[in-house]
Amino acid sequence: MDLCSLIERNAAFAPEKPAIHFEGQTLSYAAVNGRIEQTARALKSEFGVRRGDRVAILSLNRPDYLVLLYACARLGAMLVPLNWRLAVAEQEFILSDAAAKVLMLEQSAYRSLLSAADRLHLRHDRQAKGRGAPPGSLAVERRHEPTHAWPHLG
């Protein structure tokens, strides 16, 4: 059994059992599994994330962090967590060194990395809002190079 199978098994065995309690809300295993499937599909179809690719995240702890971890595991991609306490220059170095294909970040982190957009060849492309994404979930931005993306959590 691998990491991504854990949630699938629990969703099949006890779909309504609570999987995550966060800020007064509870997500069932079925709901978490659905979010993982949706995120994995988006990473694969919209950004071309494949086995061995790196997906970075700059976020405080929240359910979408775990969803992204399991979605990456499902695709065979590696999650590259960025520490929100680091300076922008340090985050830039990690992103460049890791060659992350996708970066997910919270709206609050978006402005701090906006100054680095030119150096990292980033541009705004589209957002996930309106595509059935849950509130506070992923919004998307792409790099100038077609093989890179820069999303943020909305």
What's the topology here?
Layout: H1 3-13, E1 18-22, E2 25-28, H2 29-47, E3 54-58, H3 63-75, E4 78-82, H4 88-98, E5 102-105, H5 107-114, E6 122-126, E7 138-143, E8 152-153
Parallel strand pairs: 3-4, 3-5
Antiparallel strand pairs: 1-2, 6-7, 7-8
Helix pairs in contact: 1-2, 1-3, 2-3
Key features of this structure:
globular, single chain, three-stranded parallel β-sheet, alpha/beta, 5 helices, three-stranded antiparallel β-sheet, about 150 residues, Rossmann fold
Instruction: Tell me which CATH architecture applies here.
Output: 3-Layer(aba) Sandwich
Kindly report the average pLDDT value. Answer: 76
* Backbone structural class: alpha/beta
Shape: globular
Strands side by side in the biggest sheet: 4-3-5
Low-pLDDT segments: 123-154
Helical content band: 40-55%
**Beta strand %:** 15-25%
Spell the H/E element sequence: HEEHEHEHEHEEE
Tell me about the biggest sheet?
3 strands, parallel
Give the C-level CATH assignment.
Alpha Beta
The CATH superfamily label reads ANL, N-terminal domain
Number of domains: 1
| Strand tally | 8
Distance between the termini: 33 Å
What is the quaternary state of this protein?
Answer: single chain
- Output the number of helix runs: 5
CATH topology: Rossmann fold
